[in-house]
Amino acid sequence: MAGWEENVRKVTPYVPGEQPKKENIIKLNTNENPYGPSPRVQAALLNVEHLRKYPDPAASLLVDKIAAYHGVDSAQVFVGVGSDDVLAMSFLAFFNGNKEILFPDITYSFYDVWAELLRIPYRKVPLDSDFRLRKEDYFSTCGGIIFPNPNAPTGIPVEPDFIEDIVKRHPEIVVIIDEAYIDFGGKTVLPLVEAYENLLVVRTFSKSRSMAGLRIGYAIGSRKLIKYLNDVKYSFNSYTLNQPSILLGAASIEDEEYFRKTIAKIVQTREWFKEALEQFGFQVLPSVSNFLFVTHPNYPAEDIFEAAKKAGIYFRHFHNDRIEEYLRITIGTDVEMQAVVDFLKNYMK
Amino acid sequence: MAGWEENVRKVTPYVPGEQPKKENIIKLNTNENPYGPSPRVQAALLNVEHLRKYPDPAASLLVDKIAAYHGVDSAQVFVGVGSDDVLAMSFLAFFNGNKEILFPDITYSFYDVWAELLRIPYRKVPLDSDFRLRKEDYFSTCGGIIFPNPNAPTGIPVEPDFIEDIVKRHPEIVVIIDEAYIDFGGKTVLPLVEAYENLLVVRTFSKSRSMAGLRIGYAIGSRKLIKYLNDVKYSFNSYTLNQPSILLGAASIEDEEYFRKTIAKIVQTREWFKEALEQFGFQVLPSVSNFLFVTHPNYPAEDIFEAAKKAGIYFRHFHNDRIEEYLRITIGTDVEMQAVVDFLKNYMK
Asked: Mean pLDDT over residues B322-341, rounded?
């Protein structure tokens, strides 16, 4: 190892789901939305201009729309390059004590990567045997708490009361609820941010708004929390959202009808597809997200994963002891999910 | 202060140049390029599609173009959300020892902000009385070195030999050369990255490529250096460049003729404008960038700054003892710079 390498921060990065460059595959491995964003979003590309100028560092056009949409003040909204950027900045800003932060053992697998990168002590709290969070596990002294609601990759939600019970016991730390998948059926804790100034709710445009390609995420919390978060962001990169993101993000918020319609479609597809899987003998966790987390008593998950891939269908499989036998399947269109059913029919015959 | 605030990372953020929302101003305060990107860049907006899908996390289309353009391997290129993102990731990845990193006292004022944010010990090395770097000042033991070439906000360059003398004395650290403004007349150290695996060269699309609104920056170095940098990036945010950035960035590289033509125009404008300022009695530092750093023996910089602003002309003024009497003026179009001349004629009469 050369001398200079001794000063390098060495980390094991997060591995995102594969983004195959092949055409004509059924891609159900990264929880993308099959319907694409509102036509207004695509149309707004024509309004992108003045590329020579820096974007508004505060991204006010987008921030104001998000604030109005959720009925909060613009000073309560933070935006970033996808919810990953929002979460990374939040880890940097808020998980800055010496005590361990807490998150589930089965959850978004980026949390421990950020903790390792930023040298934040952490402890993974095991989900119960039904893959559910137990709120009592989060009552102990700690340096911060984060989990998604609904959780990923299980898709299982908790009630707002559950979260409030945790937050109200912890005025000494920041609690982050990652609501990436909330629009597909969970109950948001956004109304609680007025009562608890240490509660941060994180959202993304990548799933329900079908804009993964633009990288837009946001957080809502108290003015104080958002001020601290912006201070860290402005100490990292003054201008994070580029002009297309600001403009197209705002256009998405303007088309509520399309947003509702496509979400309803995904929920409808999820429900029939869940029943179909159960008829094949799969156990399907009770998901309120745009994916299902499934296991089969007779067929190893990795075998199904590989066979499906060979057939041009991409699922997600995690190498983690407790969920080695599970697959995460994104909900696509009815046609795509029917193709999965046809594949399984053939595979299991 | 509430309990949770004790765990918060408190920082004093970088303050970017004002981005006034007013129309009809002459904006010479953030070193934007007056000409806009190649028409091919704007046209490429029409090719942005599949917004529902995540962008390629490796941004290969853009990375490959940049690599081919500079005659290096794609594994030697790192991309980020503007050079600020590239630099922030580099600080995180490479300035990870216990020794002080070194940079000039008068330089890009984000360096100390990143060092403070990431708790990297640092020492500012004073420029000499002519605002020049002295290479001997960078020969001592340290945890890393960074400076821009040409330096900002002075615009004064150093020769590649100057940098090589520093790098070859320091196999134990990473040396970062921030070439944000190199295309306007400086001599790049890119050829040195083959010989020195600890030399990182950082570039941006925001100045010479006139694409500040898209936020694209990159770094070139040894495969090893880029691998470490990517590991940190993938531990922070899997997908940083969005689809428009990848596509439009690639389109920019394809139009070399436009690129050369607009740079030549800016250099030409800089030269006559410099002479004009000298005729007004300004002292103008020998800049090879797209800005001039100027002072006048009889008129306080802040007074000129305020009067110009009132007249709708925005310069940049830094509150820093040694350069309190200087203004940084971006080179705009001939028409814009003539308006500055007219303003000064009136102001000084």
From this structure: 98
CB pairs under 8 A between A and B: 288
Residue with tokens 């490429």: B44
pLDDT at residue B131 tops 80: yes
In terms of domains, do B265 and B333 share one? yes
| Subunit contact A95:B46, Cβ cutoff 8 A | no
0.95 surpassed by pTM: yes
User: Which chain B residues are within 8 Å of A57, Cβ to Cβ?
Assistant: 16, 19
| Residues 280-319, chain A, touching B (beta carbon < 8 A) | none
Identify which of B125, B84, B116 has the alpha carbon closest to the alpha carbon of residue B9: B116
Q: Answer whether A262 touches B (CB < 8 Å).
A: no
Sign of the alpha-carbon dihedral angle for B45, B46, B52, B54? negative
Q: Are residues B282 and B236 in the same domain?
A: no
How far does the CA of residue B272 sit from the closest CA of chain A (Å)?
23
Q: ipTM, 2 decimals?
A: 0.96
Cβ atoms within 10 Å of B197's Cβ, excluding its own: 17
Q: Residue length, chain A? A: 349
Instruction: Tell me the CATH number at A47.
Output: 3.40.640.10
Q: Is A37 on the interface with B (CB under 8 A)?
A: yes
Q: What tokens were used for A291?
A: 């994916």
Average pLDDT over residues A322-343: 98
Q: Is B243 on the interface with A (CB under 8 A)?
A: yes
How large a percentage of chain A has pLDDT more than 90? Answer: 94
A1 pLDDT higher than 80? no
B240–A81: do the CB atoms touch at under 8 Å?
yes
B203, B230, B255: which is the final residue of a domain? B255
- 3-class state of residue B78 by DSSP: strand
Contact call for B8 and A228, based on CB within 8 A: yes
Judging contacts by C-beta atoms under 8 Å, the chain B residues touching residue A172 are 3-4, 6-7
**Per-residue model confidence as pLDDT tens digits over B16-39:** 878 887 888 999 999 999 999 999
B32 plus B140 within the same structural domain: no
Q: Which of B11, B42, B97 sits opposite A7 (nearest CB)?
A: B97
Residue A23: pLDDT over 90: no
For A117-176, the pLDDT digits (tens) are: 999 999 999 999 999 999 999 999 999 999 999 999 999 999 999 999 999 999 999 999
- The pLDDT assigned to A18 comes to 80
- CA dist A219 and A221 (Å) reads 7
Q: What's the domain count of chain A? A: 2
Expressed as residue numbers, the domain containing B295 is 3-36+257-347
Say yes or no: A158 and A239 in one domain.
Answer: yes
pLDDT in tens, A60-119: 999 999 999 999 999 999 999 999 999 999 999 999 999 999 999 999 999 999 999 999
- Are A92 and A236 contained in the same domain? yes
Measured distance between the N- and C-terminal CA atoms of chain A, rounded to whole angstroms: 54
User: Across residues B238-253, what is the average pLDDT?
Assistant: 98
Gap between the Cα atoms of B32 and B29, Å rounded: 8
Q: How far apart are CA A39 and CA B148, in angstroms?
A: 43
